[in-house]
Amino acid sequence: MRAVPKLFSAELDGIAAELIEVEADLNVGLHSFNIVGLADKALSEAKERVNSALKNSGIKPPSKENRRITVNLAPADVKKVGSRFDLPIALAYLLASEQLKPFETDDKLFIGELSLDGTLRPVSGVLNAALLGERNNIKEIFVPAENAAEAAVLGKIKVIPVKNLKEIIEHLEEIKILEAVPKTPFAPNHSDTSVKISDIKGQAAAKRALLVAASGGHNLLFSGPPGTGKTMLAEAVNSILPPPDFDEMLETTEIWSAAGLLSETAPFVSARPFRAPHHNASLTAVIGGGSFPKPGEISLAHRGVLFLDEFPEFHRDVLEGLRQPLESGRVSIARARKALTFPARFILVAAMNPCPCGYFGDPEKECRCTANEVFRYHKKISGPLLDRIDIQLEVPRIPIEELRAEKNGEKDEIFREKIKNARQIQRERFKKNGFAVFTNSEMSSRQTDKTIKLENGAEKFLKEMLEKNFVSARGYYRILKVAQTIADLDASSEIKTNHLAEAFQYRLRINE
User: Fold this and answer.
1) Which residues does the chain have with pLDDT short of 70?
2) Which pLDDT score, from 0 to 100, does residue 511 have?
3) Cα distance between residue 368 and residue 479, in whole Å
4) Which residue range(s) make up the domain with 50?
5) Which among 51, 172, 203, 457 has the fewest CB atoms less than 10 Å away?
6) 113 - beta bridge partners?
7) 66-105 pLDDT, tens per residue?
8) CATH code at 446?
9) Which parts of 283-440 fold into alpha helices (H)?
């Protein structure tokens, strides 16, 4: 039985990569070139790209073969999308036509799009493919030169950068060996935002809320008249968040790689992402999905901040679609073929006006909205969604005298240091208890019960507050987690009465 050349490549299934076998066979008959294995239109056109790339590289192309050429992509029931299979298809054909000396293929993985002159173009999901290769004992991965730094973030798999088809052929035939790229150094950074905490004058209560939210990863909603600084406060969050660690960077970069948002100059996500979609964004754009499901804004904001300005103006289905991600830190996209899950652990920072005209409750300017208009405006945000937002705060108008003062607010370094210390306390507590979480907001109810310690006076205060105010079971645990974050900011081993009082204050509903 004649052996059929078989190479390995990778297909993206959401953000996870799946191993694909690329086989080529030549049979007697009139010329034809067929790609089978559930290929989409872009992949079906690979035969034209491969044909021209080989011809312009000085190699006999498939069009000169008076034989039937069949390329199979297995498993056949997995949909293959895009142009990432051009390189392995070309190499499989060369092996089948005996124009390339046989080589060991079991420990190599090939990815790349071919241009008509034989050069390799970058593709998305290269880091995801490298992670797949690592899990499957692949020793070498061949990628377009522009994707090499991205694949080398792991440092555990040999990454061979390829500029053109001729280069890789000479390498595989051991004529001119290509050098593997070194591991890409991980250099975490603070987000380079245009607005910093020190730029904001006044609004001490709002800054305190930002400090608590950033320290514990809590969701935050600002409400207030136009021009009070809600947007500036939201944009300043990323400037005080600590840089991501390696595990967080890897999670985020995997998502961005699948979405095709990385480049040669930015091979990984070095700072926490900040995403701010417009309020007319569709459900698919925000939550994720599509014919071939891609991560949405909530996944692109993973381990960072999702800012929703003009919160009530978002489409109802978009707002309600946030419920599951805010609770579980992931979003499930169900399709007929299968269901995919994308990570979506982000800090939600939302901003809204108190009414359609924006001046309800403003002492300086009269509101022109009717009571019914104000009621309907608030009802655009459902109770279950508000119940998932830990900190809800009204942002008042800033006096002109305060704006004209030359002195700026607190220094960013002070905020960063406080947040860094609070998160370090959390990490040590999670490590001690064996919890695989990063911040207080991610704790489950069981984990919360296990770690929360209340002083005697706080126990009594908590019972009194729960008797006087209706709080759901979810709200109860969210209050405890916010109180724990406040205690961590104070470096307190127990939650005290003042910590609980501040946490309860943040749960005062905006629409009540």
Assistant:
1) 1-2, 336-337, 402-410, 508-512
2) 47
3) 35
4) 6-172
5) 457
6) 121
7) 899 999 999 998 889 889 999 999 999 999 999 999 999 9
8) 1.10.8
9) 283-287, 297-300, 316-321, 323-328, 371-378, 383-386, 400-404, 412-433
